[in-house]
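Section 3.1 - Work completed
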Amino acid sequence: MLGSLRRFYPVAAFFAGFIWDALTIGQRVRPLDFVRLGLFLAGAAALAWWLARRDARALLPPPLDAGWRARLGWQAPYLAVQFFFGGIFSALFILYFKSSGHFGAWLVALLLGSLLVANEFVGERYGRRFTLTWALFAINAILLANFALPYALGSLDPRWFYVSTLAGVLLAQACWWLAPGRPGRIGPAWLLAGVLLAAWQGGMIAPVPLVKKELVIGQGFEQRGGDYLLQVEPAPAWQFWRSQAAIVHVPPGGRLYGLSAVHAPSGVTARLEHRWEFLGTAGWQIQGRSRFESSGGRERGFRGYSWISAPAAGAWRLVVATQDGRTIGILPFTVLQQAPDAVVLRRY
């Protein structure tokens, strides 16, 4: 019975880390979170070294007729490594997924999660646990550095992505170099770093640590005290997943407003922009752009607004992004040139 369940130990450890993180990470990123994740990464590095030392000394697992304590003691380091990896990645998976505001970024987050879960199954089966260990370590170190460095410096300069990616893979390289016997291969770790850099160039990496809180369009915008008021067309009752209608009715010559709220941790400043894009014969074409700067710390996100006058009928989208081109959120909609049937006044 225990033998048949052994192959599921790493998966159980992975999900244990995910559940632990889901219960403890909370809604606000704190320095203590990075300390905890850094300790997890250090613990994984120490255990990887210990496992490499055990492998270099050609120690054999206990026989099948040994007691459960002996078998569990042999398996415990593997469980602990997978728990540490699960704790780090589950936290970053949640944060990266929350920062994903368009299909490409969602796809990368989901693919990373799928690959890690799949690797938990195939690692022991194919006997390549050390190569898998270095690859998982590199992914966790890179993603953690990608998030932590901009947070620590209070800057979203694109250069920090390249610096943090290089730092993460070099840390994995150093751990492999110091491991007794240098088991496994470190090449896949560098390959994964290259894949992440390619995804970054393609705009498929979420612009952490920014999180889209709100992205709406409407008419009759008004700023009253500290509140923004906007007339929004509600979605049909059967579209329960939408906060507003996908078709916007704008009278000829009217003005359409866009409002976004983007959360950034306290101390982080981001230069953002709204882009109004129309789908023409040559594809998506920018019809208007508004740039502004946000400061982190506001729980509901830093608000920005813009408008487009007399929008043509057809397919549109409002894009909120960093000024260096990283997309935070996209709101597609269709404009019809006629007065709206019903609107609701919403406060932001």
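Second construct:
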Amino acid sequence: MPHDIFGTRIIAAPMAGGTSTPAFVKAVHDAGGLGFLAAGYKSMEAMQAEIRSARASGARFGMNVFVPDPAQLPPSAEVRAQLEDYRSRLRVDALRFGVTVPPLRLDDDDHWQGKVEALIADPVELVSFAFGLPGTGVVRALQRAGSAVLATVTTVAEALEAAGQGVDALVVQHGSAGGHSAAFQPRPAGSDTGHDGSHDGGQPGPTAELVAKVRTAVGLALLAAGGVMDRAGLEEVLAAGAQAAQLGTAFLRTDESGARQLHKDALASAHFTQTQLTRAFTGRPARALVNEFVRDHPDAPEAYPAVHHLTAPLRAAAAAAGDAERLNLWAGTGWRQAQAGPVADVVARLLG
């Protein structure tokens, strides 16, 4: 049995974009769980400030870092042409809000080197990676500094590759999870589209089935991510071999969540009836409530983070206008079970 590095069965997922704040992580800690901060979309200095704030609160926490895709730095000429076409099409949306679609930005690695160096120099207890693997050198350097290292995987093949880099644990993410897919190996054509019930994302079966397959393949500690919303779901993934579950959507509507109120309200609205993996907002498959923007842009290019930068002014304007139809409303397939109230109530329901 792998060593339990988590100390709890409830992990709050790192939700970038302002949802996973130090105050949120503190609330999760106080309720008996463990939260992750999100370094994504932040400067190195902003990441360090959040670490200091979380430490000062006395909370246990981890930090999640996005791994840049070398194939997108810069993208190929073909992808660049697709981006220019998408930029032109987004002007219709921009006119709606009186904003300008920005020029292409093709050099953003999310301050990768600086963040890694900062985490080695001033280590936190747990460091997780998404969108790729950090490399054996980075894994070993973080471990020497005193951090346990987690990789996020979506298939057995990705789990084996991650294990080969010497990580301490895996976050096993199923396609039912809300927000960005962490997949980093090539996916079957068409596996990043579809509606609820189809298990799109190239992962047939429930989250527990994927966990069981990864458990058979590797001997590392596992976190199960995707679709866990209640105690029954938690018990299912634990029985399949996970040591804990990583939940995001279940916490989105909580009082301490830093998500926009517009997002929280959309999760509770009968107006939205399904989720779908979409590249429309960022250029990377991400599960969101299906709104007008998702329906209007079914063929956005696979180009992260270039698309993220193109749509950023539109998303900000939509949020300011209270327009949920043009905003990225990340949500897992179990979003209807997400409840408002204190984080402590969510954790209590999960632990029973």
